[in-house]
């Protein structure tokens, strides 16, 4: 006899009590022993995503790494241009743009100072061995270069794949060390993401005739302003770490990183069998989708994106449905009102995103100061 009691709610807690005199195959299949009792929360975004995280993370990582591998020409051009830039100009010739371009000496000085600072913070705040911190800084140089090249050529920032490169590296160097796995990947992925975004900013500045050296100086001031504002804003929005990973702040990327770190530190045997099976299916799906996209370009509009599929398995269903509605509206506008769509769709969508974000910050601040419950 199974006694199941739960309040009437969508997200409810189920109390399971199993009498000692009545064993059951179903009970054993659920992982309980006769006479045992347990209290588990059933339903809700956090519990559902805890299982869906594994296939979602798998298809994201496989798709990202495989796509990056197909860009081997991009990788070759990236490292070739790095060594060429360090070689300097022949005969010390002075270029017409040298007065407005960013000197290589600025990069060397900045990389050394910020790299040492990052390594020191990794050792101080997260007790990561000093050589692992320095390795993360060195990796960030190469991965940022790859991200810059990939972003410039394709318009896509491969931050997911590049972060996983670091996680896999440290999974072999320091198995079981989750802080080292996560925080070193944050260093490399953060550098790669910022580098790729900076390339886009410089391109826009070039189009409108801005001075690249002055752009860099302005961005440095932006770094200082962002650091002073982003940290307090984070604590206002997320006063407790438990808020992350829930329906309000699903943080799909963070869940993927957490999942990869756990698997690398604990092994697949710690996961439910159904989750491992789902990961195998997701691995095949991610591999096949990328191969089809590369070998059959005409089928690209009908080939599911590994990134979109992985994110859809992690974020709330309401968010996925909202994305579907937005894509459907744009699809209709492209066919019925192409001129209006070209002029107004992106500004309207950007305004909606910005408006929701700003209102969310305002409500969080009101809650923090006690003016809203």
Write a compact overview of the structure shown.
The protein is mainly alpha-helical. It is 71% helix and 4% strand. The protein has helices at residues 25-29, 45-70, 72-87, 104-126, 130-154, 159-173, 178-208, 212-237, 252-266, 273-295, 306-312, 317-336, 338-368, and strands at residues 3-5, 12-17, 37-42.
Provide an overview of this structure.
This protein has 3 domains: 3-43, no CATH class; 49-85 and 101-316, no CATH class; 317-373, no CATH class. The protein has 13 helices and 3 strands. The protein has helices at 25-29, 45-70, 72-87, 104-126, 130-154, 159-173, 178-208, 212-237, 252-266, 273-295, 306-312, 317-336, 338-368, and strands at 3-5, 12-17, 37-42. A 3-stranded antiparallel beta sheet has the order 1-2-3, with no helix packed on it. Helix 6 runs parallel beside helix 9 (252-266). Mean pLDDT is 75; it is low at 1-18 and 38-42.
SSE string, helix = H, strand = E?
Answer: EEHEHHHHHHHHHHHH
**What is the percent of helical residues?**
over 70%
Percentage beta strand: under 5%
Poorly predicted runs: 1-18, 38-42
Strand arrangement within the widest β-sheet reads 1-2-3
Query: How many strand segments?
Result: 3
Overall 3D form:
globular
Number of self-contained structural domains: 3
Distance between the termini: 43 Å
Question: How can the largest sheet be summarized?
Answer: 3 strands, antiparallel
- What's the pLDDT, averaged over the residues? 75
Radius of gyration: 25 Å
SS summary, helix count: 13
Oligomer description: single chain
Helix/strand/pairing category = mainly alpha
């Amino acid at each position: 006899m199974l006694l199941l009691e739960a309040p009437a709610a969508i997200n409810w807690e189920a109390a399971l009590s199993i009498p000692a005199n009545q064993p059951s195959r179903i009970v054993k299949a659920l992982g309980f022993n006769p006479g045992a009792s347990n209290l588990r929360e059933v339903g809700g975004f956090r519990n559902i995503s805890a299982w869906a995280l594994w296939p979602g993370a798998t298809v994201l990582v496989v798709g990202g790494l495989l796509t990056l591998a197909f860009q081997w020409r991009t990788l070759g051009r990236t490292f070739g241009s790095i060594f060429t830039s360090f070689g300097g100009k022949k005969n010390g010739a002075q270029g017409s743009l040298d007065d407005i371009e960013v000197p290589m000496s600025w990069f060397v000085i900045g990389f050394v100072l910020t790299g040492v600072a990052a390594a020191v913070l990794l050792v101080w705040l997260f007790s990561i061995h000093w050589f692992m911190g320095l390795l993360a800084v060195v990796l960030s140089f190469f991965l940022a270069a790859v991200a810059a090249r990939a972003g410039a050529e394709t318009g896509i920032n491969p931050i997911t794949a590049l972060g996983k490169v670091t996680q896999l590296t440290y999974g072999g160097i320091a198995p079981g060390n989750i802080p080292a796995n996560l925080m070193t990947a944050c260093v490399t992925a953060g550098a790669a993401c910022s580098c790729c975004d900076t390339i886009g900013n410089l391109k826009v500045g070039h189009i409108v005739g801005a001075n690249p050296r002055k752009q860099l100086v302005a961005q440095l001031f932006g770094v200082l302003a962002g650091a002073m504002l982003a940290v307090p804003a984070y604590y206002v929005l997320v006063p407790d770490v438990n808020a992350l990973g829930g329906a309000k702040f699903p943080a799909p990327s963070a869940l993927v990183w957490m999942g990869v770190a756990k698997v690398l530190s604990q092994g697949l045997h710690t996961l439910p069998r159904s989750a491992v099976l789902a990961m195998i299916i997701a691995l095949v799906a991610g591999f096949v989708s990328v191969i089809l996209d590369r070998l059959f370009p005409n089928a690209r509009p009908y080939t599911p994106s590994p990134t979109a599929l992985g994110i859809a398995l992690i974020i709330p269903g309401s968010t996925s449905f909202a994305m579907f509605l937005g894509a459907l509206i744009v699809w209709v506008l492209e066919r019925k009102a192409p001129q209006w769509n070209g002029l107004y769709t992106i500004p309207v969508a950007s305004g909606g995103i910005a408006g929701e974000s700003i209102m969310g910050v305002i409500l969080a601040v009101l809650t923090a100061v006690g003016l809203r419950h």
